[in-house]
Amino acid sequence: MIKRTLKQITSMMKVENDVNSFSNLVVHGVCIDSRKIDKGNLFIPLKGEKMDGHRFVEAAIEDGAAAALWQKDVPNPPTHLPILIVEDTEKALQELARSYRNQLNVKVVGITGSNGKTTTKDMAASLLSLKYKVQKTEGNFNNHIGLPLTVLSLNEDTEIAVLEMGMSAKGEIEFLSNLGRPDLVVITNIGESHLQDLGSRESIADAKTEILSGLRENGIIIYNGDEPLLKERLQKYGHKWEIHTFGRNAGNTLYPTHMEQNNGGSLFTINQSNSVFNLPVLGGHNILNALAAMLVAHSFQIPFEDMNEGLKELKLTNMRMELVEGEKGERIINDAYNASPTSMRAAIELVSNLTGFTNRILVLGDMLELGPNEEKFHFEIGQSLNPQKINYVFTYGKLGKYIADGAKTSLKSERVFHFTDKSTLSAKIREYTNAQTLILVKASRGMRLEEVVHTLMKKNK
């Protein structure tokens, strides 16, 4: 993490007051939540719509913070404490992170995409750790506040930082890329997330390719070569940066020559190695994420033949194809962190084709931020279900009802249920489960369908 004196910090960002009386104080890391202060932190109070962190500056310092920022338009700064007055505390956080990044001798991998960026980040970090000291974005700290915090958490001896870059609007990834200054960038895919804000997949592709704006000279681009929208935007940069692609098709730099699913994960082979790779996570789409991560590691001189060791140590962020056991011995795939039509179809395909189960149940909720065609997208998910592969469908939420309506065109209506209450939903699911049951639980994060998973895992009392 950042370790600097307050005098050094004043050279890394603009400070408007005299700090000579406490210039030798040393800051160890930064924190924006006064409840999570560690000794020596620089507390950065942010002004939100409902809460102003300046209210907690004195408490933060009492709890061990070495110093705090203070936004100059906020009245009554505590003059008896080590305070750095700045124009805007959020911008100061970003400015400090940008300066710190420029002082570090670290290689940066930047990852974005509509789906799979967090999983790819976790996989890339695990593979790179075979040879290097690696830090990565924790959780989903991938926005204009989370990424600066991640950069400021980097240790000075970190060799590679794997940074996830998310977005909700045009221009955000450009900002993050220019702050992180990646040496290598990955674009996992272009899906339907953020259609509500950006209007079309073409606009989403334009927004994702903003990650090139901070890519350093002699950098590397890795992208999903099966996606025409990416291909037409990125292949023209071959003269400027090194480009590699991954995907299912044989025209890519790296592609699978065999894929197989089992209860413990996925087995696959690739065109550039004779090894059989064992991925401890389910889904053909996750094999594609693994290919992207393998290209990242290979770009840093890690042989493909060594990568099984890194895949074996993989630890994914929670609620991404997480396989857990229910009360009756049923197997539950908890994929409740996010959802789009692309990722939902991929998860349903996985469940449909996994062997060893006689009863397959889908528990599906709203996919958010899909724009004016959201009802159509939900209906089509239900309509596309194979009645020979799926036994029952349970849906939840306002938009989930359209999944149920679509499902009734492909499955008998008595096999489709819609709910607006999670406890009632969970109780009904229990009536249809046994030890031979596989359940997929998937929806956008805002639906909190992991609560259903937790209920199904509990013993009835």
Describe the structure.
With 461 residues, the protein is α/β, with parallel strands linked by helices. The protein folds into three domains: 3-89, 3-Layer(aba) Sandwich (Udp-n-acetylmuramoylalanyl-d-glutamate--2,6- Diaminopimelate Ligase, Chain: A, domain 1), CATH 3.40.1390.10; 104-312, UDP-N-acetylmuramoyl-L-alanine:D-glutamate ligase (3-Layer(aba) Sandwich), CATH 3.40.1190; 322-457, Protein-Tyrosine Phosphatase, Chain A (Alpha-Beta Complex). Helices cover 31% and strands 20% of the residues. The chain has 16 helices and 21 strands. It has helices spanning 6-10, 57-62, 89-103, 117-128, 146-152, 172-180, 195-198, 201-208, 228-234, 284-299, 307-312, 341-353, 374-383, 400-407, 422-430, 450-457, and strands spanning 3-5, 26-28, 30-31, 42-43, 67-71, 83-86, 107-112, 134-136, 160-164, 184-187, 220-224, 242-246, 256-262, 265-270, 277-279, 322-325, 331-335, 359-365, 392-396, 416-419, 437-442. The strands form five sheets. The protein has a six-stranded parallel beta sheet, sandwiched between helices. Strand 19 (392-396), helix 14 and strand 20 (416-419) form a beta-alpha-beta unit. The model has no long low-confidence stretch (mean pLDDT 92).
Number of strands: 21
CATH architecture of the largest domain: 3-Layer(aba) Sandwich
**CA-atom Rg in angstroms:** 24 Å
CATH class of the largest domain: Alpha Beta
**Could you tell me the strand content as a percent range?**
15-25%
CATH fold call of the largest domain: UDP-N-acetylmuramoyl-L-alanine:D-glutamate ligase
The number of distinct helices, counting runs of at least 4 residues, comes to: 16
The CATH homology group name of the largest domain? Mur-like, catalytic domain
Residues in helices, as a percent range? 25-40%
What is the CA-CA span between the terminal residues?
A: 47 Å
